[in-house]
Amino acid sequence: MKLHRIAIVTALLLVFGVALASAQNLLQDNPHAQRARELRRQSEQAIDEGEYNRAYDYALEAQEESRKAREWAEMMLWAYRAGGARNRAQERLSFVRGIDAQTHFPDEYRNAVGFYEEGQQLFGDERYQPSFEAFQSVLAALESVRRVTVAADVLPRYYEVRRIPERRDSFWRIAGYDFVYGNSREWRNLYEANRDMLQDPDNPRLIQPGMLFEIPSIRGERREGVWQPE
To answer: Which of 158, 156, 155, 186 is nearest to 173 (CA)?
Structure first.
C-alpha cells in the first residue's frame, strides 16, 4: 500500500506540472500540448482504476510532451518574429534599390544583402532566432541610407517592368524608350544584362511586371537611380 500511495502522489505531482505548463501555452493547436492533455486524462483515469504504475508511466510521458510543447511554442514564436523581420528587411531593400543605394552607399548595401541572404538560409533551416537577428541586421546596415539628389542630365540606371495592358513591356519596347536607348534594336543589351533574373533565361519574351532591370551604359552615358514615371 505504501508503494501505491507513493506512486499516486508522484503521478499527481507530475500531472499537475503538465496542467500548469499547458495552461501557459497560448497556442491551442500545439500538437505536443494536445498530446500532453490526453496523457493527463489517461493518467487520471488509470488512478481511478487503481492502475498506479500505468498512471505513473502516463504522467512521465505527459511531462515529456509538455517539455516539447514549450519548445515548439517558443520555436513558433521566433518563426513569427523572423517572418515579420524578413518582410521589413525586404521592404527596406526594395526601397534602397529604388534610390540606387548600390551606387551611393555600396558598402551599406553590400552588407545588408549579405545579412539578408544569411537570414534566408537560417530561416530555411528553421533556425528562427538567429534568422530574426540577421534580418534585423539588414535594417541596421541600411539605417544611414538616404535618397541622393541626381543631376537632371543623368539617365536612369534601372527600370521597373510595368503592367501596361494596352502595350505590354518587352525588352524591345523598353530599349526604345528615350530614357533607355531610344532605339528598340538595342534590346539585346538589356536582355544580356538581366537574363539571369528571368524565370527562363533563354526566353527573352518571358518578363514579369515588378522586375527591376539594369540599364547598362553603352555610349558612356551617366546612369543613376530608378526611372520614375511622371
So the answer is: 186
